[in-house]
Specification:
Helix content: 40-55%
CATH architecture: 3-Layer(aba) Sandwich
Shape: globular
CATH topology: Ribose 5-phosphate Isomerase B, Chain: A
CATH class: Alpha Beta
Radius of gyration: 14 Å
Structural class: alpha/beta
Distance between the termini: 23 Å
Largest sheet: 5 strands, parallel
Strand content: 15-25%
Number of domains: 1
Number of helices: 6
Length: about 140
């Protein structure tokens, strides 16, 4: 299962991503926010991170204005490897090389069309499981 969350700035893009996930038949749970009312992105980064850490979800998607703040909040946890991606190459590389388990995006940075392509790339790209990559990831944990 996939965990998804956003703050108020990412709410609209999150709605589009969730519709896209439904079309693809991908199971997900929305951890908020549920309105465009101003709120704090660390709360939703925490909820998605805890879902992954607790085994409720395998991966997550977080969206705020830039993707930066919400990724920093998620990366406070050793078990989380959140990557801000604004292009498909980065989404592919972070899955292959870093085994990133959270995709962070900025709703004020990427448009809906590109965001959906980034989501697809992130979800469809496996970890390469190469020796060098495993060694490097273990140094971060």
């Amino acid at each position: 299962m996939l965990a998804i969350g956003s703050d108020h700035a990412g709410f609209g893009l999150k709605q589009a991503v969730m519709a896209h996930l439904k079309e693809r038949g991908i199971e997900f749970k929305d951890y908020g926010t549920y309105t465009e009312e101003s709120c704090d992105y660390p709360d939703f980064a925490e909820a998605v991170s805890q879902a992954i850490i607790g085994g409720e979800a395998d991966r997550g998607i977080l969206i705020c204005g830039t993707g930066i703040g919400i990724s920093i909040a998620a990366n406070r946890h050793r078990e989380i490897r959140a990557a801000v991606c604004g292009d498909c190459f980065s989404a592919e590389a972070t899955r292959q090389h870093n085994d990133a388990n959270v995709l962070a995006m900025g709703a004020r940075v990427v448009g809906e069309g590109l965001a959906l392509k980034i989501v697809d790339t992130f979800l469809d790209t496996p970890f390469s499981n190469g020796t060098n990559h495993v060694r490097r990831i273990s140094k971060m944990s």
